[in-house]
Amino acid sequence: MQISDELKEKFQTARSVCVLTGAGISAESGVPTFRGGGNSTVWKGMPFDQISSASMVRENLAEVWEWFDYRRGVLKDCEPNAAHFTLAKWQDRFAGFTLVTQNIDGLHTAAGSRDVIELHGNIQRAYCTNCEKRFDIRGKIPHVPEICDDCGANLRADVVLFGEMLPPGAFEKAEKAARNCDLFFVVGTSALVYPAAGLAEIAKRNGAFLVEINPEETPMSGFCDFSIRMKAGRILPAF
Question: Catalytic residue positions?
Answer without folding.
Answer: 120
